[in-house]
């Protein structure tokens, strides 16, 4: 039987802990995961590397790639800030036989689930509260107060999408959230696919 690589999607409002959980899972070699490096139109943060954290495209180049239909999904997540999954990126990782893990916004996450319903596990990361998101983003020190406000302003709409995901992981206690994520992903990866998909 052909082994079909899976898609593991982590979505949530900004500051909920997607990146933290994804980085934790990537250390678990037995899960055979590879990170889908998204394209982004924003500037890199201190310490972020092009081709590792994101493919940092300028806005012009990003729009050019949209016109060429290079994206599996893309979204203007915040005003003038585009993010997207390149078709070529997912194909590259599938060719290596890897299960692909995504850290993407809720709209993008649900789009991928719709495109690949059987082979995707769509996980929503739920923070304890919207106020806690603000506290975490302030502590992370990567965003200006204006950008934090913009991200938090979107959080309640994003929280409302949680029931559309396959599963919700509460991220109040990080140790427990990591353990739950590991358990869910390991189970899903082992599960045989029930049907072929028209992709
Ligand atoms: N359970 C937790 N308790 C306290 N702090 C946490 C917890 N989980 C993550 N954090 C911290 O909260 C901050 C936000 O986490 P992270 O960057 O993983 O969020 P994110 O959902 O990826 O956000 P973004 O969408 O902005 O990239 C980080 O500084 C991280 O260390
Ligand atoms: N729809 C998509 N959303 C994405 C993608 N890559 C990242 N993101 C999401 O954007 C926000 C902001 O990210 P940040 O790195 O600036 O904090 C966050 O929700 C990411 O998950 C993507 O390819 N498609």
Automatic annotation (TrEMBL):
It is found in: Cytoplasm. One of its GO terms (molecular function) is ATP binding. Its main location: cytoplasm. It catalyses: GMP + ATP = GDP + ADP. Its EC number is 2.7.4.8. Keywords: ATP-binding, Cytoplasm, Kinase, Nucleotide-binding, Transferase. Coiled coil: none annotated. Transmembrane segments: none annotated. The keyword rRNA processing does not apply. ATP binds at residues 12-19. One of its GO terms (cellular component) is cytosol. InterPro entries: GK/Ca_channel_bsu, Guanylate_kin-like_dom, Guanylate_kinase, P-loop_NTPase. Residues 5-186 form the Guanylate kinase-like domain. The keyword Ligase does not apply. Gene3D superfamilies: Guanylate Kinase phosphate binding domain (3.30.63.10), P-loop containing nucleotide triphosphate hydrolases (3.40.50.300). Essential for recycling GMP and indirectly, cGMP. Belongs to the guanylate kinase family. This is Guanylate kinase. The lineage of its organism: Bacteria, Pseudomonadati, Bacteroidota, Flavobacteriia, Flavobacteriales.
